Predict the structure.
Amino acid sequence: MLFGALEAGGTKMVLAIGDENGEILEQTSIPTVSPEETIPEIIAWFKDKNIEALGIAAFGPIDLNRDSETYGSFTTTPKLKWADYNIVKAFRDALGVPVGFDTDVNGSLLGEVTYGQAKGLTDAVYITIGTGVGAGVMSNGKLVHGMLHPELGHIKLVPHPDDSYKGHCPYHGNCLEGMAAGPAIEERYGKKAIELKDDEKVWDIEAYYIAQALSNIILMMSPQIIILGGGVMHQTQLFPLIRKKTAEMLNGYIKTKQMENLDHYIVPASLNDNQGIMGCIKLAIDEKTLEG
Ligand code: ADP
Ligand code: ZN
């Protein structure tokens, strides 16, 4: 059986065909321009591929409420050309197959939980730190949507004592995304994040913010693993710093086997950057099962 996968990102769309084991058989990508230009191209690619269902993981915010009239749409996205566009309906109408739908970060998390290092776990968090900060959450074996979907990238943080930067988020200033996403690093220091790789202070402050967020997440939802992805996490020196600071902030309060060795608890993504697209295959499989 063949399934379609679409990872809808703000800069590019990744398209793939996979089988029921999550194996990717064919893959391509095209730039994200506008619905009018981009969607027909994607439809044309999937049209003769004989897929049983399609899974879409998209940038947001998006409407995931199946009872809502606008289920399947982008909502208040700053990518204005896509605001209110119903991507699920577009593909259902054009391809006539079930279409599974979730956030990009829930997609990556689902990939890790189904095919990657978090296989078998029921409670997990996937955080991407890139152009923005987003988090996918699984609780009791289910991807969390709730009222909308979690927006952990925007939780408020205590500023680092040596950091006077006001923050990059247009809504909250110094939230996690405002202080720790790529554009925040670049505005704060006036340089590309990658050019700052040897500046220890930069990564110490970065790790301080990420560790605060992780401590709060651990206290709030008690995940069995936390996976960190996105462009900024290519600075792998962050991992030991984040683990150390998270442990310091929790100060011994949470005593579990996972907390004894954070090397296996706070980890990089495990599927060679395919976690998102593999998660889309699983979204397609699940939707096919649901709709029969
Ligand atoms: P997106 O979030 O748009 O999907 P990425 O996850 O690649 O894409 O994030 C892009 C951001 O990550 C940019 O702001 C850039 O500064 C930062 N970034 C990309 N590569 C690196 C790197 N090797 N080291 C540090 N920061 C990086
Ligand atoms: Zn914010």
Remarks:
- The chain has a mean pLDDT of 97.
- The beta strands are 2-8, 12-19, 24-31, 54-58, 99-103, 124-129, 133-139, 142-143, 225-229, 266-268.
- The CA atoms of residues 129 and 230 lie 5 Å apart.
- The pocket of adenosine-5'-diphosphate (ligand 1) is lined by residues 9-11, 128, 130-131, 182-183, 186, 192-194, 230-232, 234-235 (CB under 6 Å).
